[in-house]
Amino acid sequence: MQQGSSNNNNNNSSRGSGHSIDEVSSLFKKVIDKEAHNLKHEREQFEHDKAAFEQNYKKVQSFHSSEPITLNIGGKKYCTTQDTLTKYRDSFLGAMFGGYIPLKPCKDGSFFIDRDGTHFHYIL
After folding, report:
1. Which positions ≥6 away from 103 have C-beta within 8 Å?
2. Quick one: how far is CA 103 from the chain centroid?
3. 3-class SS string, 77-90
4. Tens digits of residue pLDDT in 19-78
5. How many angstroms separate the CA atoms of 52 and 16, rounded?
6. SS3 of 4, please?
7. Which long-range contacts (CB under 8 A, 24 or more apart) does 50-53 make?
């Protein structure tokens, strides 16, 4: 009779926690399922972001680095090349023209940056 009661204790409590093995197993399954769902969602978001980056990268690569690029900085226009703009890849312009930031040229083909263009030549 003690064996039956010992078996019963194993099924009804997990080392004195008050939860049966089935309850604990069910809780673990719920946690694992939730994490799997979260990972799936994160993976889908990553794949979406990766596809957008690759599309933008291809668009930027379609510019020939020797062709002039016109920047409209606060109404003042500057002409330069992609090589110059991407020389420092960790800079804003390097990221913008290196494919990390989506670009949309203006109707005239220039790229508008909403900043004061008076001293931009020092940056360029």
Report:
1. 56, 59, 60, 96, 97, 111
2. 17
3. EEEECHHHHCCCCC
4. 899 999 999 999 999 999 999 999 999 999 988 888 877 766 665 566 789 999 999 999
5. 53
6. helix
7. 52/102, 53/99, 53/100
Closest C-alpha among 108, 78, 84 to residue 98: 84
Tokens (6 digits) for 70 = 């016109």
Residue type, 55: Q
Each residue's pLDDT tens digit, 86-119: 888 889 888 888 877 778 889 998 999 999 988 8
Spatial separation of the C-alpha atoms in residues 10 and 46, rounded to whole Å: 44
pTM: 0.48
Can you tell me the distance from the alpha carbon of 1 to that of 62, in angstroms, rounded to the nearest whole number? 82
